[in-house]
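Researcher: We plan to redesign the surface later, but first we want a full-length starting point. Tokens attached.
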């Protein structure tokens, strides 16, 4: 007997009609209607029958269903109350799925992992993210230092490119460094608009983040480090020494900024976009030490 998955245009339409569901644009509701794309996401997420999966925003259950089939257990966070009875219906046949009605930005995901998954189980975050809060969601998951192995997400193509960018490219910036500090980032596939209902205005990509066991670089103070990185890109066309002189205006004059840069062998006439993450760490640590000496 062939089974009709939720992630087909006809089944999705049937469910939406049955519940007279109207999409909320403000919640980034674009549902996937292509099983092949979902299988691709699941393969890249390294999901197998021993793994646990965390999903953000199950919608009517298109990806959740595939995760239920391929993983040991799925826990999904959904903010839209109207979707809960629908999910009970569409995923009723899968006993290994739990839906939590909560805003992911407010959830204690570490506690949920402790309570819902086996000790030492590999856990993967997999999601077709609501595009209006992609970066806050990913930064929260990374800052919280969740005990998960990977995060594989469908997001806006341009944002995925920024997160996985290399130095000296247009997409490279402070977001790149923030993501690569915690993970190895890779864009694994671009996806056309036609696989969604309703179709979004932007193209999408699947981004795979493999979590590092230790941050990419050692920094004296994380907040200070991210502040220096942001400052280095503040005005992309300006030199490093100009951006840093502005940022540290109340602490160091231009001559002192040059001395600090010379001390670590970084040419102040370079632009922020040419520095790799190791150089940013060196830069931030040098300024951090100087700042502390001044105090
Ligand atoms: N996973 C489904 C799919 O692929 O068809 C739906 C993906 S849709 C792009 C995003 C989903 O995230 C919607 O179901 C939306 O209601 C939900 N959502 C939006 N903001 C959320 C938040 N802060 N916390 C949890 N879920 C959220």
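Model: Full-length starting sequence:
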């Amino acid at each position: 007997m062939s089974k009709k998955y939720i992630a087909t245009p006809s089944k999705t339409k049937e469910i939406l009609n049955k519940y007279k569901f109207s999409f909320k644009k403000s919640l980034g509701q674009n549902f996937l209607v292509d099983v092949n794309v979902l299988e691709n996401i699941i393969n890249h997420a390294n999901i197998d029958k021993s793994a646990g999966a965390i999903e953000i925003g199950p919608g009517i259950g298109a990806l959740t269903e595939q995760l239920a089939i391929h993983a040991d257990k799925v826990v999904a966070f959904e903010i839209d109350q109207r979707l809960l009875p629908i999910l009970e219906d569409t995923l009723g046949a899968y006993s290994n799925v739990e839906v939590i009605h909560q805003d992911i930005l407010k959830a204690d995901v570490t506690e949920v992992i402790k309570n819902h998954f086996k000790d030492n189980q590999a856990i993967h975050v997999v999601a077709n993210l609501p595009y209006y809060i992609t970066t806050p969601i990913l930064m929260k998951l990374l800052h919280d230092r969740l005990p998960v192995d990977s995060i594989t997400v469908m997001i806006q193509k341009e944002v995925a490119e920024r997160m996985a960018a290399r130095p000296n490219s247009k997409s490279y910036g402070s977001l790149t460094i923030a993501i690569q500090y915690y993970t190895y980032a890779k864009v694994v596939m671009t996806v056309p608009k036609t696989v969604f209902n309703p179709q979004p205005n932007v193209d999408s990509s699947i981004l795979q983040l493999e979590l590092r066991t230790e941050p990419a670089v050692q920094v004296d103070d994380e907040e200070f480090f991210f502040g220096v990185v942001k400052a280095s890109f503040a005005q992309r066309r300006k030199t490093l020494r100009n951006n840093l002189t502005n940022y540290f205006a109340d602490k160091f004059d231009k001559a002192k900024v040059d001395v600090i840069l010379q001390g670590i062998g970084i040419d102040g006439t370079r632009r922020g976009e040419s520095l790799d993450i190791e150089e940013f760490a060196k830069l931030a640590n040098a300024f951090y030490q100087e700042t502390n000496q001044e105090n």
